[in-house]
């Protein structure tokens, strides 16, 4: 649990903030500061009120920023924008205005600050590690007295490492400067979810879906596929919903609407995009089956987590394509290099995009840690489900799968953690193959 330090001279205000945050964070507080140096070990974030010192807390902020790397959220008065500007100049991560709505947004502001700061630090560490590795390899190469082939391999490895660090740095710079267009969350999924949540009737839902001819046509095709078409033929959206059922219809609409995200300027990436989308569909269905079999409370949410788990790869691919189109990076990136780059860095970028879309934090954590579950700060049953589904989809041939020596024990461990046995997994694997073969969903 993250530890948050509240710096506020008013005990009643500290108490009010503690009430809002105590369920998610370990809280400690300070009511004054004597100007001396402080030890901030163990502190993950600071909420600094302008009433904390006579200098509106800016002197304390300078002390923090000059001695440590901790994100600071300044709480400022609504009639003093200059204070907020000065605080950001000194190094405050963000600020909130002290109004009657402060406590309703404070939890979200602190969470966003901690996540975003963590992302920045992780990105910095990754870039620095790449640069350190480059320096190490260059030193080895310079000192090497080996044969010519060894030296050539050293140069090639150095070039690859250097290219990775350069590309990561370029992406980070462009994103931070706002020069990259972020994809937008499919509006149809948002609108349909709103109707489902309010228990709208079939007529209202059908009218919504009819606004998108592509979604309507593909939903009808699914209803007439070999998986469902034996029930009765569908020629209208209403009939398709009746055959599939509301919640199954919503899942297919999410899949179809999600396909619209897979647009990119560089057509050379078509096959990669297609494989990525098919893997996402397979992972979504396997996630739902696992969640249902394990009796998790909300299988439909786990389905959507599975659908979005690799969104970071799509995001990075779109950014790379855009940068190439604008001649800002090398247009000749090998498929092996690109695949490895996406695999290495898609987690953190996927999490960031889902946060921009304001999806629940559980979705963002799944996007970041579905392949590095041992690094997750907390591991939910939903994360186990998507992690397992991701592996099953790859093993079934839907996605790039490189078998590892310990994959079987890894698979068994996750299966046990979610409360299932290997017989259940075998059944889910067979159902996944049937689903992918019979549903008739296609990328084109």
Q: How does this model look, in words?
A:
With 444 residues, the chain is mainly alpha-helical. It has four domains: 3-109, Rossmann fold (3-Layer(aba) Sandwich), CATH 3.40.50; 119-176; 180-260, no CATH class; 262-444, Hypothetical protein af1432. 63% of the residues lie in helices and 5% in strands. It has helices spanning 11-21, 58-67, 81-90, 102-143, 148-176, 187-197, 202-210, 213-223, 237-244, 246-259, 270-293, 299-308, 311-325, 335-356, 361-369, 381-395, 407-417, 422-438; strands spanning 3-7, 26-30, 45-49, 72-76, 94-97. Strands 2-1-3-4-5 form a five-stranded parallel β-sheet, with helices on both faces. Helix 2 (58-67) links the parallel strand 3 and strand 4 (72-76). The longest helix has 42 residues, at 102-143. It is globular and about 75 Å long. The two termini are 45 Å apart. The model is unreliable at 144-157 (pLDDT under 50).
**Helix proportion:** 55-70%
Provide the structure class: mainly alpha
Identify the CATH homologous superfamily of the largest domain. Hypothetical protein af1432
- Under CATH at level 1, the class of the largest domain stands as Mainly Alpha
CATH topology of the largest domain: Hypothetical protein af1432
The fraction of residues assigned to DSSP E strands is: 5-15%
Overall tally of structural domains: 4
Biggest sheet: strands, sense, closure?
A: 5 strands, parallel
Mean pLDDT: 84
CA-based shape: globular
Rounded radius of gyration (Å)? 25 Å
What's the N-to-C terminus distance? 45 Å
Strands in their spatial order, largest beta sheet:
2-1-3-4-5
- Helix tally equals 18
CATH architecture of the largest domain: Orthogonal Bundle
State the low-pLDDT regions, or none.
144-157
Number of strands: 5
């Amino acid at each position: 649990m993250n530890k948050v330090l509240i710096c506020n001279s008013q005990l009643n205000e500290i108490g009010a903030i503690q009430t809002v945050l105590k369920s998610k964070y370990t809280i400690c507080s300070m009511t004054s500061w004597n100007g001396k140096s402080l030890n901030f070990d163990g502190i993950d974030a600071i909420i600094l009120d302008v009433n904390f010192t006579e200098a509106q807390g800016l002197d304390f902020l300078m002390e923090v920023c000059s001695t440590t790397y901790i994100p600071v959220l300044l709480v400022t008065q609504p009639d003093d924008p200059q204070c907020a500007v000065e605080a950001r100049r000194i190094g405050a991560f963000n600020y909130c205005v002290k109004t009657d709505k402060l406590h309703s947004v404070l939890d979200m502001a602190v969470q966003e600050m901690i996540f975003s700061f963590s992302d920045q630090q992780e990105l910095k560490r990754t870039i620095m590690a790449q640069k350190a590795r480059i320096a190490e390899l260059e030193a080895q190469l310079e000192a090497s007295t080996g044969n010519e082939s060894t030296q050539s391999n050293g140069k090639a490895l150095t070039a690859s490492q250097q290219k990775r660090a350069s590309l990561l740095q370029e992406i980070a710079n462009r994103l931070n400067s706002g020069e990259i267009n972020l994809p937008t969350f499919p509006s149809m999924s948002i609108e349909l979810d709103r109707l489902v949540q309010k228990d709208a009737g079939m007529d209202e839902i059908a009218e919504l879906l009819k606004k998108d001819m592509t979604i309507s046509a593909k939903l009808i095709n699914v209803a007439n596929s070999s998986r469902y078409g034996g029930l009765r033929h569908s020629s209208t959206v209403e009939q398709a919903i009746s055959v599939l059922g509301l919640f199954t219809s919503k899942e297919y609409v999410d899949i179809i609407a999600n396909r619209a995200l897979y647009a990119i300027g560089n057509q050379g990436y078509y096959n990669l995009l297609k494989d990525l989308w098919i893997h996402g569909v397979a992972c979504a269905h396997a996630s739902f089956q696992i969640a249902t079999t394990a009796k998790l409370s909300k299988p439909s949410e786990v389905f959507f987590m599975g659908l979005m788990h690799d969104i970071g790869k799509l995001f990075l691919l779109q950014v790379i394509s855009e940068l190439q189109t604008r001649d800002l990076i090398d247009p000749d990136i090998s498929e092996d290099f690109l695949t490895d780059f996406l695999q290495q860095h898609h987690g953190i970028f996927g999490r960031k995009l889902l946060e921009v879309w304001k999806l629940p934090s559980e979705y963002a954590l799944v996007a970041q840690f579905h392949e590095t579950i041992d690094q997750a700060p907390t591991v939910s049953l939903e994360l186990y489900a998507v992690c397992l589904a991701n592996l099953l989809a790859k093993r079934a041939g839907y996605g790039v799968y490189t078998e590892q020596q310990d994959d079987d024990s890894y698979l068994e461990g996750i299966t046990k953690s979610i409360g299932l046995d290997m017989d259940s997994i075998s059944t889910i694997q067979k159902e996944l193959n049937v689903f992918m073969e019979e549903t008739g969903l296609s990328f084109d």
